[in-house]
Amino acid sequence: MKIGVFTDSFRPYTSGVVRSIELFSREFTSRGHEVYIFGPDYPLLQPPKEKGVFRFISVPAPTMPEFSLPIPISVQLGSTIKKLKLDIIHSHSPFLLGSMGARAARRFRLPLVFTFHTLYDQYVHYFPFVGNASKHLVQNISRDFCNRCNTVIAPSQLVVNYLDRIGVKSPVVIIPTGIDLDEFKNVNSDWLHENYNIPEDKKVLLFVGRLCKEKNIAFLLKAFQIVEKNFPQVFLVLVGKGPQEFYLRRLIDKMGLKDKILFTGVLPRNKIVHCYASADLFVFPSVTETQGLVIGEAKAVGLPVVTIRAYGPAEMVVNGEDGLLTDPSVNSFAESTLQLLHDRELYKSMSSKALENVRNVSSVNCADRMLNVYQELIDSGLSAPRRRFNFKNSFFFDQNEKTSNIFYRHFDRYRMLH
């Protein structure tokens, strides 16, 4: 099977989407399938050339310089797809290269699959030119793109419910991104203490993810302040980087927690696995995740999880068994964290269950399910539906004509470039 993957982000950029593509691609190629990635270039990072990876000219995003926006123009795309003899196209974004992949699928009469990785309406603060009405617009884009696909992949049932609510009619299949369990063997349970001089008597709370608004880290800091007052022998480690880092550092200074919180910055995978293994508890306050891949990674080393009951995390944690789901309040989050720090028997039980339950989302099992979806579409002879976006018929445009006309001009330029 020859699989074309179109994505608006890829390594060396790090994100849940990139990690998902890497894991599935690795599993597919290990079974003898061929995977070809069509993704952005990162001119500031100068990624090495990789076989099977086709890079598009890209520019740094104005609101996220570490992220590059690919320019969806290529005079060679058609001939490349013909030469590769792709069997199926899998888009991982409804924008830019993801949209280009959808057009390529229609042109070459190939099945089109789309993974709904992100609750895009929760990220509109990165696109300020459409103003307050942008949530409606992004929901409409998401709905219309999904309805142009043969199959939509959702990481969780709550995402299926969301897609149904916004009007998606295409078939939706639940397949989470799997966890590579082999990656978490032979890890160092003292790595954080050894490399960052964290005292051995400190209990380490760990967060892994981008330092950005949608991850709700300011909420985590407020909860940690309560935890630290009641359990002084605690330390918080934040692994990652992002646009809120400067703001978060200032907030920590104001809270008087500078000596209790560590920023590691971005770490390579071979070090992140040691971070998980050397922590005591995984704390994840995000309410915008479609899955929460890092929760599964934490469970792969036996870390109990404290997270807010919302979307993907609500399905990644079995409440009271391998972690605790909390209300979206600082006090509730802090109380659950303190409960696991104080109750050692509960902690041990949850740690054991975390190791057991994570096997249900192994990368091997999830890859098999995805390949079955591909094969069924190929065998059926279906190709991508010939549909186009129709923004002007939406509620958003009826209510926000001025804003919609501004966006439509921007979007029309993209379509002309395509």
Plain-language structure description:
The protein has 418 residues and is of the alpha/beta class. It has two domains: 230 residues, 3-Layer(aba) Sandwich (Rossmann fold), CATH 3.40.50; 180 residues, Rossmann fold. Helices cover 43% and strands 16% of the residues. It is built from 16 helices and 15 strands. The strands form three sheets. Strands 3-2-1-6-7-8-9 form a seven-stranded parallel sheet, with helices on both faces. Strand 14, helix 11 and strand 15 form a beta-alpha-beta unit. Helix 7 packs parallel to helix 8 and helix 7 packs across helix 12. The longest helix is centred in the C-terminal third of the chain and has 18 residues. The two termini are 27 Å apart. The C terminus is likely disordered.
